[in-house]
Amino acid sequence: MTETPETRFQLNPYLDWAKAEGVPIVEDFGVNLHRIGTAPWPRLAAKGAIVHLKGCGDQVSIFLIDLLPGGKTSPQKHLYEEVVFVLEGHGSTEVEAADGRKHLFEWGPNSLFALPLNLRHTHFNGSGQERALFASTTNLRILFNLFRNEEFIFANPARFPERAGKESYFSGEGDFIPRAGTRPVWETNFVPDVARFELRSWTERGGGGSNMMFMLADGTMHAHTSEMPVGTYKKAHRHGPDFHVFCVNGTGYSLLWYERDADFTRVDWHHGVVYSPPDMMFHQHFNTGTVPARYLATAHGSLRYPLTAERVGLSKGGAVSVKLGGRQIEYEDQDPRIHHLYLDELRRHGGTSKMASFIDESKYRA
Fold this sequence. Notes:
Radius of gyration: 21 Å
Distance between the termini: 64 Å
Number of helices: 5
Number of domains: 2
CATH topology of the largest domain: Jelly Rolls
CATH superfamily of the largest domain: Jelly Rolls
Number of strands: 25
Helix content: 10-25%
Oligomer: single chain
Shape: globular
């Protein structure tokens, strides 16, 4: 088609860039990252794919990086932020600080780390036999659409030494920041194992759950992890787009719906599955397994730098009932089908409900 002035509208430079990278682009509601096909990604000198989930909004996407046995990426440096969740394998990452010092940390399955802004870094696969696979949640989508200049993003000499934080932040140490009346924060650059990280009780979301918020590399990218005990589920809630929910351990499912919907959308999850609830779509998480189920959520807009009014509102009213102007549905107000379905799922998996402490189950007995 011949380009005319009339066709120079409704452009998306980021999507054009992504297509030009030459790797698979996966678009779906939820995906199993272990099963996504990857292809050589010249920019990284590794294999990879790009994942655009239905609820990713306009700010965030996932880069899936697949390192062959004994492989390494080419050194990278960029103005977009990224939060990395390791799915498979063992290896290390070297980060070169603005003053030339190098930080090397080792990661394995379920490690979580953020790369301080615009610092040169290289990933290494420590195994000679198995691949390493990790998912990087990035905010390149919004940056590329804003600046539309590849050199500005990937070859910018600007330095941000304050983003590196304490040297101990690269070794898995961090600072615990209590917050009265709400969820506490762990500030660091690197969490060796999200599955084993100590959480704190967070009863506001229901089900006897626990939680920890992360402040990573003093960035604008958000991350938190939550856990549901066996035989329980959380209260339904909703928020803006771009929260990417990764299953860390356990098995279960999530239901998603808009107020106008007659039925639910369902995503079954286990380790490696990720999905993103679309804008203001209610969603609810259910543990059907024999161990506590834990997930990791990443998004754009951190607690320190929320960026948007929507994120500020979420931090203030995320666990407040919709009856009081918040975003959460209390157990007594939820659709009766939800608990019936959960009991059926538990029977199918040989499990027992532990929800009697949170909901009147007498009306659900056969």
